[in-house]
Amino acid sequence: xxxxxxxxxxxxxxxxxxxxxxxxxxxxxxxxxxxxxxxxxxxxxxxxxxxxxxxxxxxxxxxxxxxxxxxxxxxxxxxxxxxxxxxxxxxxxxxxxxxxxxxxxxxxxxxxxxxxxxxxxxxxxxxxxxxxxxxxxxxxxxxxxxxxxxxxxxxxxxxxxxxxxxxxxxxxxxxxxxxxxxxxxxxxxxxxxxxxxxxxxxxxxxxxxxxxxxxxxxxxxxxxxxxxxxxxxxxxxxxxxxxxxxxxxxxxxxxxxxxxxxxxxxxxxxxxxxxxxxxxxxxxxxxxxxxxxxxxxxxxxxxxxxxxxxxxxxxxxxxxxxxxxxxxxx
Amino acid sequence: xxxxxxxxxxxxxxxxxxxxxxxxxxxxxxxxxxxxxxxxxxxxxxxxxxxxxxxxxxxxxxxxxxxxxxxxxxxxxxxxxxxxxxxxxxxxxxxxxxxxxxxxxxxxxxxxxxxxxxxxxxxxxxxxxxxxxxxxxxxxxxxxxxxxxxxxxxxxxxxxxxxxxxxxxxxxxxxxxxxxxxxxxxxxxxxxxxxxxxxxxxxxxxxxxxxxxxxxxxxxxxxxxxxxxxxxxxxxxxxxxxxxxxxxxxxxxxxxxxxxxxxxxxxxxxxxxxxxxxxxx
Lengths: 330, 281
Prior knowledge:
The complex is a heterodimer of chains A (330) and B (281). Chain A is mostly helical. In chain A, 76% of the residues lie in helices and 1% in strands. Chain A has a two-stranded antiparallel sheet. Chain B is mostly helical and 281 residues long. Classes of the chains: A mainly alpha (330), B mainly alpha (281). Chains A and B meet through helix 1, helix 2, helix 3, helix 4 and helix 5 of A and helix 1, helix 3, helix 4, helix 5 and helix 6 of B.
């Protein structure tokens, strides 16, 4: 009897002790896991600040040497070590803007097609195809642009542009010079093709977020398809569409490989969009491994910093817009 | 009379918009398929066993892409090994522990920026912190540059997928006395497994075609090498170099390499899509 009680108490003691041990162990793993996840979340912030700090650090020599003038001079001379970022900045902005001017209307019209006009059985396949195409690496578009698209432009489109628009007073200066094939215009068109799937799939997503009741009411009143899109869908989704467009712009600004193949890589400011030019990313991709001397390398890193600042602003604005759209819908 | 004019002008406008819409859809889909068609046509003509068994050749002789394919595989695998755990854990914090934290909203915003930041800038970053320190280009630097691109993709999908796990599942597990870490690992992860794997597949698809971050981290290597401490060849960089060269056989190899990459990327994206749609059913 006594034995039994002692035994059972012993068993009880052991189980209390082991339970306490198990509990501490569980608490420990819980805490370790919690802190590991927290640390990794902070790691994301560390990566971004690391990017910014390392770019600033790398670009200090050039910024000290050239100061603010780095942004406003178009000289790029590795021999005399005189560098200015104006030509690449100009090229980046112009190619992206032309690309957006082409891709945005096309993307919106395709989104209108997919949400309003397309027969039901085709919607899913076309939608999926567009999303898959958005994932194709940019180097594929680059190689296609170099071997197929640029020669085609050189032989047909560019001579036509020079012969017709080139003589129109006011805009004629945009279409001067020989048809090189490669150049600002070709790069813009390739960029447009690349961002088209992006803009289309985001616009389609926000168009689909419009409550059907709104559209049905408009159709019920006798509105045409165009009127429904123009006066119901677009006003409702405006913020989301702008967000999507800016996301596409962010991608176009930073796009490297597709542009490097076809932009011509010439450091000069030219009023003609048929002439070869360069962009920030193309300049870095092209020259970085060959750059000798601290100042040359540092100038290229400064270009990277400028690109990062521009895209950061555009992307932050895009995210803010899309967030506003989400809040409104959800 | 005025009504009739109004009707016909509305009809006309609608007609124009409809035609433009059909036209754009035709043009857009047409151009994108043209890109793929040319790629198939050009790439298939150069496809042979030699592509997978021989090294990249000097100009003017025959060869394959073996060292580039192997280099790409090594760096991609390493990038996934480095990047995935960080991404999954960060996503876990955002969806589980810190769902309503200020930290979470900041991380989400920064992560979205990283997600679409220009990849060439990532290359510069790794160049500054690794290549300059080590004094030479290396495969490991390339792998880490790719890992930096993997992280935001995985963070995003992990968070999204964990947020889709119904709360009653977590509550039921907690009610049984499971500690939080166990609930997350044995209930939430299990429920969100397909989605998290999808995120990893998408990340692999994303980095397998990335060229810009490798240009000045891993550089390129014309010879057989699996050493992570020296320059390492990769498929995208070889395509870049060969396509811009004046030699016809190099250019043909570039097309073939482009076909291989596109095939891999499309396969991965379709697999990822199949995985999530299965889950939905």
